[in-house]
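In the laboratory, one determines a bound structure by crystallizing the protein with its ligand and collecting diffraction data. In a computational setting the workflow is compressed into a single prediction: the sequence and the ligand go in, and a structural description comes out. We illustrate the idea with tryptophanyl-5'AMP.
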Amino acid sequence: RPRLLSGIQPTADSFHLGNYLGAVRHWVAMQEDHEAFYCVVDLHAITVAQDPAVLRERTRRAAAQLLALGIDPSRSALFVQSHVPEHAQLAWVLNCITGFGEASRMTQFKDKSLKQGADRASVGLFTYPVLQAADILLYQTDVVPVGEDQRQHLELTRDLAGRFNTSFGPTLRVPAPHIVKDTAKILDLQDPTAKMSKSAQSPAGLVELMEEPNRAAKKFRSAVTDTGREIVFDPEHKPGVSNLLTIHAALSGRSVDDLVAAFDGKGYGDLKKDLAAVFVEFASPIQERVRQYLDDPAQLDKILGEGAVKARAVASATLAAVYDRIGFLPPR
Ligand code: TYM
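The predicted complex, in structure-token form:
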């Protein structure tokens, strides 16, 4: 079975719909025919300041959401990044073969550091994509399911694997991104020119998996739509309506064509109302399952402990091979 790794940051109390539709939904489907590793990336989270108690709580919440959404810990390794020290260790090695200019060209770093002010951005934030490359390369990963915003980090990962192999001999598998076009970029409900993101301008543009269903329903009902009144799928000219159709299709399992036909002659308001109901039906049972997992933190921590053991078995072998290739004297 091909190997798969992906990760998500524990930097909010809840995943948002972009996280779920762009990534986690595919993780759940792909664990059937892949040997999968799913990682809550707490080392990445601290590239910007985090409150310790909140970080700990959000790490458990992230794991609980992944389980509630269908990640099966008997099939896949579900673990916390800091539980597997090889991530930080391989990241150091990769830092040493990454060009300063190369890292400077990462657009997510540029965006985030601009927001914080260049002098306040941490060196950790600068080297964030190199740590991400380490996450992936440690598992000799074949595919990495992510949203569109991670494409550049995947390119860097491929470059670093190729560079290491050229310098030191074949050691690291070169991974491919798995970016499902339809849902690769879920848009903000209030500003359908921007991706849905936790740093959104207005909270009304962002729908969280864990938010109170009626509140979320209201956000769908007040989503910004486009001029005209016809419900058609045209992402370029009608990004607002098209985004709602994409979300509806992904949550209801119906095709966009089917939805367009079903809403023929109806208005934007009808689509929004229907989507709000679809979301409530989807989210309510998941929220209940998340609560159950959070009610039993010992059981949750046990699952994460077992995931880390599975992950370490693979990660330590890769790191040992890397250390040997670069000429580190083995400890006796
Ligand atoms: P993060 O935590 O920001 O997001 C998790 C996943 O959600 C996807 N995503 C979206 N997809 C579609 N539309 C959106 N609006 C949207 N917003 C977010 C992201 O693309 C991502 O797949 N750097 C990563 C975490 C990471 C990682 C890794 C991923 C660390 N190591 C190794 C893959 C492999 C990140 O910040 O994701």
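The first helix runs from residue 17 to 30. Keep in mind that any predicted model is a hypothesis to be tested, not a measurement.
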